[in-house]
Amino acid sequence: PAGKKGAEEEDDDFGYRLFPDRNKKPQSFLVRSLFTFHNKCQLMLRLTLETNPYARLLLEALKQSGCTVFNDRHFSCENCDGCVSGGFDAATSQIVLCQNNIRQQSHMNRVVTHELIHAFDHCRAHVDWFKNVKHLACSEIRAANLSGDCTLMNEIARFKFGLKGHHQTCVRERAIRSILAVRKVSKETAEKAVDEVFDACFNDLEPFGRIPHSKADAKRAYRDFQNRDRYTANL
């Protein structure tokens, strides 16, 4: 749906321009199977969902929240604009994976985790994705903070270095960048929204209970989540 809240948001397509396959008739399985990108995307997705501790924790958390995720229903490998790797379509509760832009398993792991955090927020809270930029900012902060987007190795790969407070800086910058990619708002509007909710949303660590800075951290968080569930069941 398109809404108008001022000149800068006029004709806002809510980021759908970045995902052109969203508006096309779905291709048959036979046609899709002929494209290497689609096959590779599906294989990498399956490996992520089965082995990655970030994704496995989020899948369990979603299930416990009443939002079980099904591979064939809630994930879609599609061709996208070159500037994005994935997205969460709140209108369909579906995660879009950009098969033409995701080439490595580690990249797939991060994208799936990032978008599953959006799905988790969509499940547990009344998020107004389309009209409330603060709601969007909060989920983007959480996704950047908890998905591994801002690990030291990823930042080094982007040629960005820093010491004190660098993780927070990375989270803020990536949240602003994500908002600008999917909403027709000014940079000042995006920055204001992020800054106004940053502390509360940065410190909201559900369902991890910690900031997982590595796969080892994510494994520990996954074990803690499972034990927390067992403890709650015995109360």
From TrEMBL:
InterPro entries: Peptidase_M76_ATP23 (IPR019165). The keyword Metal-binding applies. GO terms for biological process: mitochondrial protein processing; mitochondrial proton-transporting ATP synthase complex assembly. It is an enzyme of class 3 (hydrolase). GO terms for cellular component: mitochondrion. Keywords: Hydrolase, Metal-binding, Metalloprotease, Protease. GO terms for molecular function: metal ion binding; metalloendopeptidase activity. It holds the Pfam family Peptidase_M76. Its EC number is 3.4.24.-. The keyword Protease applies. Belongs to the peptidase M76 family. This is Mitochondrial inner membrane protease ATP23.
